Amino acid sequence: MTPASAADPKRWWALAVIALAQLMVILDGTIVNIALPSAQRALGMPDADRQWVITAYTLAFGGLLLLGGRIADLVGRKRAFVIGLAGFAVASALGGAAAGPGTLFAARALQGAFAAVLAPSALSLLTTTFTDPRERAKAFGVYGALAGGGSGAGLLVGGLLTEYLNWRWCLYVNVPVALAALIGAQVFLRDRSGPRGGHLDVPGVLLGSGGLVALVYGFSEAGPRGWTSPWVAAPLMAGVILLAAFVWWQHRAAGPLLPLRIFRDRSRAGAFATMGLATIGMFGVFLFLTYYFQAVLGYPPVRTGLAFMPVSVGIVIGATQIAARLLPRTAPHTLMASGMVLAAAGMVLLSRLTVHAQYVPHVLPGLLLVGLGMGLTFMPVYATATVGVPTQDTGAASAALTTVQQIGASLGTVLLNTIATGAAGRHSRAHSPADSGTALAEAMVHGFSVAYWCSAGVLLLAALVAALTVRRGKPSQAGSKPSA
What we know:
This protein has helices at 3-6, 11-28, 31-43, 52-75, 77-96, 101-129, 133-164, 169-172, 174-188, 202-225, 230-250, 266-282, 284-296, 301-326, 332-350, 359-386, 394-430, 436-469. It has 484 residues and is mostly helical.
């Protein structure tokens, strides 16, 4: 056991605090989805505006992550963690008490902004708290399980709160959770960030955050408007230009927002790429199966949430009971590639669903394989992407990894939805049976099937990337030294 770990007898309690905060952030990405129809009715929200309940959160979260990570490096991980928790609790209370759509949109944006400070500080605290390889594997197993399985749990919690209380509790529930984490942070967390200083890279903030906001906005509008809409093409083009300028500036800035030396190690860069591809391929599961369960099989919200639990259970088992035990003696690329192949096999099974499928024999096996595969992948990805990063850069590295995950989720949702919609339309034009209701359901399921095959292809590509780029052992710090 390393001195760093031995010197902190409260480190496992610290893990519980970090995990609680991370779970809150992950849950909030999906917990509001099921409550959205109820909130729309209660607040008199027009159909054209309802997407902003989701988009306001994702825009602020995805766009400000790099800034949040650098703030953690400059002011300290624990301080940033506490600021993020307190702000998230206040924003949640504001959203729960909203009397109109505008207040709810603003509260969701504030939630995303404070989550952008909270998430990277939580991951960087985990990185600096656990340095012993075996303990680190266990800690990242828990973190990876929450990061992958929290979305499915959010659907269940959202369904329960909406059905048995009301939609406002999908926001209010964050307040006691954040307060408990705040108390735990004061008692158990230690900040080993070392000497701090420097200044905030303002041009980098403007270019990086502006580019990410433009990309996330463009992806979010591509679904309802189509890829050819100027409201989609213009933000995407602006995002690419701004991010290219951001990379150019980071090479020249004295105190860059995102030190590019983080990516010079091949294994670390491979872990980032694997995470991006994995989230692109994974998020079709939640999107399409939500529609499949409710629109095709007729499940109510709570049953829909319960139907997703095998994914979360599979991720927890894969991350904490398999990957965490194997990583100290197994090359990380072996776990990542194996996990992606398992998840791809699960997608292939889901591609065989029909309008008359039954849950246990037809849906459950695919969900379990996807969950196990994601758990096997996420845990070593988090561990590999953050090990060997200099202490002064852990916030930036953590923010970059979370950003890749967020952008991958946004891009995957839009791309796969576009593929599914196009395939469903072609199926409808080619088949015109007398029962129009059955025809629509069959076309929808056919579109999902095509999208699942595409997801499987993306996940197999992730397996190939992991196998070819991530080396045995941990990333070195050689590529992480500040450049002159």
